[in-house]
Amino acid sequence: MTDAPGRTADAPRGRPRNAAVDGAVVDTVLRLLAEGVGFADLSMVAIAREAGVTRATLYRRWPTKEALMAHVLDTVEDPLPEPAGTSLREDLLVVVEATRKRSLAKHTSAVMRNMLTTLHSNSELWQYFRDKSITPRREAFARILRRGIDAGEIRPELGADLDLLIDMLVGPLYYRASINAPLEEDLTEHIVDTFLRGASPR
């Protein structure tokens, strides 16, 4: 796992951190991102003002904007649920539906859009986002697909490019989220069943 950018190795000694302050700062960052403020335009001064804390308080916790953003990622990122392993279809429904619901969350979508804009401008933060969010989720999908191949539910030759199979499952969700298109409740079943019709042994 990549270390959080700009984060100090040891927490400062002294009084315990006030969780309410941390929560107010995180909520402020998420609100600003959801309102369309880009990561490049966020300033520690504005965040402190909007959160109702002093700049000294903010900088004691997060010495850089990158360190603060890494903390926000840590706060909002939830792991995918672990499927029961009963069948390929049921397992895929679990993780694709979790991805759909995640894409519906306004703060998560805002964070994701802003992280994508850092790809060329802040490689360290982008790498942290990949390690924290993207890679674990893709690995979870890959485990399910490998089980499906081993069980004969997916044609074995398709295992040569698991990344493409994962893209087929999550791509429609991320694309629709990026253009603010509806993510209907039945979309998960439609994606999974369409995928299986193409990937199942003939």
From TrEMBL:
InterPro entries (UniProt xref): DNA-bd_HTH_TetR-type_CS, Homeodomain-like_sf, HTH-type_TetR-like_transc_reg, HTH_TetR, Tet_transcr_reg_TetR-rel_C_sf, TetR_C
Domain HTH tetR-type: 19-80
Gene Ontology molecular function terms on file: DNA-binding transcription factor activity; transcription cis-regulatory region binding
Superkingdom of source: Bacteria
Residue range(s) of DNA binding per entry: 43-62
Keyword presence, DNA-binding: yes
Keyword DNA-binding: yes
Pfam families per UniProt: TetR_C_11, TetR_N
Keyword tags: DNA-binding, Transcription, Transcription regulation
Name of the featured protein: TetR/AcrR family transcriptional regulator
Lineage of source species: Bacteria, Bacillati, Actinomycetota, Actinomycetes, Kitasatosporales
